[in-house]
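Re: the 580-residue chain
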Amino acid sequence: MTIKSKLVSVGVAFTTVPLILFALIVYYQNTKIEEITYVEVKNQALSDLNHIVIGIYNMISSQQEILEKNVDANLNVAHDLLNLLGKVSFSDQKIQWEAKNQFNGDIVNITLPQFKIGSSCIEKNWGLNKETILVDHITKLLGGTCTIFQVMDKSGDMLRVATNIQDKNAKRTISTYIPAINPDGKPNPVISTVMKGKRYTGRAFVIDAWYIAAYEPLYDNNKNIIGMLYFGVKEESAASIRKQIMDILIGQTGYVFVIDSQGKYLISQNGKRDGEPIWEAKSSDGKYFIQEMISTAHKLKDRQTAEIRYLWKNPKDPKPRMKIVTFSYYAQWDWIIGAGSYENEVFSSLEKISTLSRKTNFIMLGISALFILVSVIFYIMFSTSISNSIKNVMNLASAMANGDMTQRLQIRSNDEIADMSKSLNKTCEQLSSVIGDIQKNSETLASSSEEVSAISAELASSSEQMTSQATTITGATEAMSANIKTVDEATNKMNQNVQTVSAASTQISQSMSTVAAAVEQSQANVASMASASEEMTSTIAEIARNTEKANETTNNAVKSVEQASKQVGELASASQEIEQ
């Protein structure tokens, strides 16, 4: 791997890894925030729904208490007015009744004595145009509804003989009765309480609706229960409760509703579906959520809530949406109070947080990618600059190794690489100067070698001449043999000197080779080059000493030759004298 690749890899790694770690931490934190926010928002939404349901529960409970107190007080008023009219009793006249069970509609034909208040007998009156004794007067004074019941039999069935409660045809509902035993086989709580001589105050089913009512027994002179007096108002008669319930908006489209245990709407959204049975309502995922809600509601304690989730699609919705409903059961009115809305509306704040979190993650990812891209480009440029500088230094070093001392590095910065480049340029200049000095010394040595060679040639020529003269002298006389021998020894000595000169020339040649080697080595190592220069200088000095020795030997040889020539001349003169 090149230095450039290493620098880019390390730089990008040191930039990328922290960014990736930071991005992962941010993503993890955002995910945790979403999870925590979801839990908190869900709990808060459920808490809000619970508060709404419990708030309505408490409101109804308070209203129940107020209504009970009111109907109880109004029944006291009715009781006092009844006492003012006189004692209740039966007349001797019998009346035929076609009594109708208010729960199942069963008809019972029965003949009863005419009911009497004071001296006034109660007559059958279905019409509203004609006033009925006591009950209409009570309604004018207090509002609500009032009824006088007459005992039908020993079991305690109670027949309405005077009332201002109307049926669907706007007629009085006389000739209807409350059975002592309800259709489910259980004792009717109103009848069982009254027949014990007690007042009943609470919720009661009247004809076709639920009322908050008060009942008390009516006694004859013998303290026998012969009937009962009723005053009541409809549960839904408190318009403020209905309005408050229908005005509650949850999210964008959520609302509060009330159903009974039969799955009938008591209070629907904006009152549009009041009275509609929804027992068979089924969600988009096939769940009978109303039945499940009612079943769960009957298991709840006072002010306890439960929740249910189901898919629901309104006619105008493109697809089903998950709906969440919190509900509670107010048993006294048989009200299942529900508060619900679509989850995407309840959790709208969570959707905003999730959207913001996703945007944050995308922004973080974009910033990280941008930083990584910028860092890659930066490190590529940075590493390219450094690697190019190092390549230039390598090229200069390679050129120096090959003996090229003419190249120089260009200085474009002011850092450590620039300092190194300056040092290399200076080193190259110094090496070039040293090599130049060595070349000059080599030329001087070459010149000296040539001079030594010339001297050697000259000495060789003189030796040949002396050898020729010695041969002539040897042929002239035997008497000169000793001197000739001396001359011969001198000649041999001169030959040795010539050989010495030749050896010196060889040594000079070897020294030149050493110089050449030293020059080559100096290109690789300045220190070795300096040592070689010193060795070369020593060699030159030795050559100079050998040259001086050669010159001295030559001078001695010349002198010997001259002396021999003189002796030969003397010998020649002596020979001539002898001949003469």
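The chain has three domains: 3-62+351-388, 86-237, 418-579.
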